[in-house]
Amino acid sequence: MLRNIASLLQPVTEFDATNTRILRELSRNARLPNIELAERVGLSPSACLRRVQELERRGLIRGYRAMLAPEARGGGFTAYVTIGLNEHTKAAQLAFERAMAASPHVRECHNVTGAIEYLLRVEVPDIAAYKHFHAETLGTLPQVTAITTFVVMDSPKDERA
Q1: Is 156 part of a structural domain of the chain?
Q2: How far apart (Å, rounded) are the C-alpha atoms in residues 121 and 142?
Q3: In the chain, how long is the greatest CA-to-CA distance?
Q4: Is residue 40 assigned to a domain?
């Protein structure tokens, strides 16, 4: 994935193999001490720190965060939900996006192409809580015309950070 990002960013900024290695290492462990990061990517600690700071300044590193277990946020039941809107207007999109931003159960909301307009990642404690979210949040929005739920049974690979 980082290799694809590097190729997309090359025309915009000087992006070399060392920057790619820095991003790969930080995506694996953002708490890696600079001295260890420098050793892994083959730089002096001061040169490595300058590169990391430049990647941050240019917006290629947007931030650092902890990966929390869904249970720590009151989740335990995860579903991906596709949403179709009945109107393809900016007003309908903005209204839907505001409602999703206000919902603590919606962990991700993506406007996508294809047969539907949105893809959500929803985390709730259990199926009963999801049923409530489905009926009382999604089901009450006038612009929503289609809802399809995909229940996550397991995540053998998850690189979200």
Answers
A1: no
A2: 20
A3: 58
A4: yes
